[in-house]
């Protein structure tokens, strides 16, 4: 709930008033649950939230932080605000790429970017109400993320199949080469047996018969050897194509990793700049008085009821 009541704009934490109906949608809670929580944080002596008591909380009531200094002194609230800002940025990136994907200007996400988005999705479980705070198009954005995950799983499946086929091709090549060697040995043995038949009753008849047998056996063995060599060549060519496919996939992954690292570096530099600028503009007027008052309220909050 408190995450929904805060925002970071230009590096500065600000309040973001919300209707109770919106808080219910963002938090996935009922009106009674939100009302009971709001009442706890607007008790006399705390007054973290407004409207103050005894205003009755309804679905149309606008709830707001009582003072922005809460986000500077209450560390947990500052952490919630920062996390909400980061979650919003992730959704905006997904939303923007989903829109560009629909127009053919952007491809689906891949690892490692996809892995970060999947972890974010599991942790945040964004709702349509929450998504409206960051541009809406919830169904389209979630569909884009799901398509990206499905495409990645399909690529992984194809790579596993390709590796299995490549391994099978290697085994087949070894078998064909073994068979080819056996055919060559048989051809040589046939030649020697045919020559050994010379020395029968009639030298001429034996020579003619041996020549005919040798020719028939040699032609058949040559044909089988040619078929085996052709099969070996095709298998090797298929193996080369599979290896080229794997190398292309690795190059694409390396490029995507480099783009992700560059994007993270630029975002980190922009955040540092924004935080430094916000700190320079921050006024020190009444800081001690406000800080003491809010710390006192936080002490009351942390004390057991």
Distance from first to last alpha carbon: 21 Å
Structural class: mainly alpha
What is the CA-based Rg, rounded?
A: 38 Å
- Overall helicity: over 70%
Strand line-up across the major sheet: 3-5-4
Average per-residue pLDDT, rounded, comes to 79
Q: What is the strand tally?
A: 5
Overall 3D shape: rod-shaped
| Annotation field: number of helices | 9
The low-pLDDT segments are 197-203
Beta-strand fraction estimate: 5-15%
Largest sheet: 3 strands, antiparallel
Helix and strand sequence: EEEHHEEHHHHHHH
What is the fold's blueprint, element by element?
Blueprint: E1 6-9, E2 12-15, E3 18-19, H1 20-27, H2 31-40, E4 49-50, E5 62-65, H3 70-73, H4 75-102, H5 113-124, H6 128-132, H7 138-196, H8 203-281, H9 287-302
Antiparallel strand pairs: 1-2, 3-5, 4-5
């Amino acid at each position: 709930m408190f995450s929904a009541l805060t925002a970071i704009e230009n590096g500065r934490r600000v309040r973001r008033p919300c209707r109770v109906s919106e808080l219910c949608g963002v938090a996935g809670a009922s009106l009674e649950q939100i009302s009971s929580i709001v009442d706890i944080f607007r008790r006399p002596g705390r007054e973290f939230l407004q409207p103050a008591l005894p205003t009755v909380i309804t679905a149309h009531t606008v709830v707001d932080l009582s003072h922005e200094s809460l986000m500077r002194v209450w560390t947990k609230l500052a952490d919630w605000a920062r996390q909400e800002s980061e979650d919003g940025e992730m959704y905006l990136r997904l939303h923007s790429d989903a829109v560009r994907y629909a127009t053919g200007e952007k491809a689906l996400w891949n690892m490692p970017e996809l892995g970060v988005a999947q972890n974010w999705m599991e942790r945040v479980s964004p709702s349509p109400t929450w998504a409206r705070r960051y541009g809406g198009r919830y169904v389209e954005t979630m569909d884009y993320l799901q398509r990206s995950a499905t495409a990645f799983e399909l690529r992984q499946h194809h790579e596993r199949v390709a590796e299995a086929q490549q391994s099978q091709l290697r085994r087949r090549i070894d078998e064909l080469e073994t068979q080819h060697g056996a055919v060559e040995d048989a051809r040589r043995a046939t030649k020697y047996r045919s020559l050994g038949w010379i020395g029968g009753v009639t030298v001429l008849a034996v020579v003619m018969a041996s020549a005919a047998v040798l020719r028939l056996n040699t032609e058949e063995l040559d044909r089988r050897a040619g078929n085996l060599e052709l099969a070996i060549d095709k298998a090797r060519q298929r193996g080369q194509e599979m290896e080229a496919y794997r190398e292309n996939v690795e190059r694409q992954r390396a490029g995507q990793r480099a783009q992700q690292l560059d994007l993270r570096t630029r975002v980190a530099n922009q955040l540092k700049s924004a935080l430094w600028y916000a700190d320079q503009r921050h006024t020190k007027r009444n800081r001690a008085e406000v800080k003491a008052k809010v710390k006192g309220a936080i002490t009351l909050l942390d004390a057991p009821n």
